[in-house]
Automatic annotation (TrEMBL):
NCBIfam families: OM_YfiO (TIGR03302)
Parts of the chain that traverse the membrane: none
Outer membrane lipoprotein BamD-like domain mapped to chain residues: 37-214
Keyword Membrane set for record: yes
The UniProt record lists the keyword Signal: yes
InterPro entries linked to this entry: BamD, BamD-like, TPR-like_helical_dom_sf
Name of the molecule in the record: Outer membrane protein assembly factor BamD
Keywords: Cell outer membrane, Membrane, Signal
Amino acid sequence: MKLALILFLSLGVLNSCSTQFNKVLKSKDYDYKLKMADKYYENKKYKNAEELYVELFPIFKGTQKFEELYYKYAYCSFYEKNYPDAENLFKGFLEVFPNSDKAEEVAYMHAYTFYLQSPKVELDQINTNKAIGMMQSFISTHPNSSKIKDANEIIAKCRSKLELKDYKTAQLYYDLQQYHAAGISFTNLLNSYPESSKGEEYMMMAVRSYYQYARLSVFDKQEERYQKVSTAYFDFADRFPESKLLKEAENYKNISLNNIKKIQNEQAKTPAER
């Protein structure tokens, strides 16, 4: 009985709110509508506020009230998690009001919407790259902003996601025994993310990949490819001289150099000796 009463009262409140909103929609008093839109906005009823702002957008365009209307309209989409529309509206606000005292905030929010549209790591990372570019642009144009720290943190998160995606690709090549592609991918990972805490692991995987690639190659190609293992090792030793993985990499280098000697000795033999 108590639950039924609660449901009845809830429905009554919803119907009352719906009736009130319909009255606002039917009103021809645009100043009243704007006042109500702002009230809905303040009460976090963004869907209702947005519906009114959409209607009032052309009505107040060019007036002193338009900037605030546009600003809140953009945020309605943002709060409703409609990030593509929010992105376009924040961009439009900046184009219409480049000198607004809200311009810095909106510029940050415009960049932030790209970050919020960044997909799972397995998917195409267009918006992740855009978020990095937009945040870097924001930092350049607003060097004294209180949002600089946040912008840098978002750039770091985006780069970590891109790094993880590239790592998964490189590891997949290795798992599929496409060792040449794996070696190149792990080397590129290190070059693209030199600040990565996993740099030693990437370099080790590059050495392993080039070794496996050489080992499985046809005889005529092995010498050249074993030499690549040696080159990768010395690159590793130069970058990470104190690495715990260096001993393993050195072992691959030594095996490769021994194999090169064997190949050269074999090539030096006469046909009869072979």
